[in-house]
Amino acid sequence: MLVLSRKEGERIRIGEDIFVTVVHAAKDKVHIGVDAPLETIILRDELRPKISVIDSEETTEKTNETIEENEINIALDNQPQDSKLAS
User: Fold this and answer.
1) How far is CA 53 from the centre of its chain?
2) Residue 41 in contact with residue 55, Cβ under 8 Å?
């Protein structure tokens, strides 16, 4: 881990297009600003487990929907030809 000292108003550059600025520094808290491209995900680390659970639940829901759609399609494909024409 790289550890840097910065004063209020000073910046750190990460790569070509990400900047971290010390906005305010107090005794027990630091306010930072992050300038990054819109497609960059910036997330407080303590929120990551919660987001992972939400993503996992959404993925499970989408997977279940896909399975149901596939089961319907398989059922329709296994119908006799005359039944398919009637529906």
Assistant:
1) 11
2) no
Token pair for 56: 């996992």
The Cα 67–Cα 72 span in angstroms is: 9
Alpha helices in the chain (DSSP H): 48-77, 81-86
pLDDT digits (tens, 9 = 90+) for 44-84: 887 777 666 555 555 556 656 665 666 565 556 655 555 44
Query: How many CA atoms, within 13 angstroms, populate the side-chain half-sphere of residue 65?
Result: 6
What DSSP designation does 80 have?
Answer: -
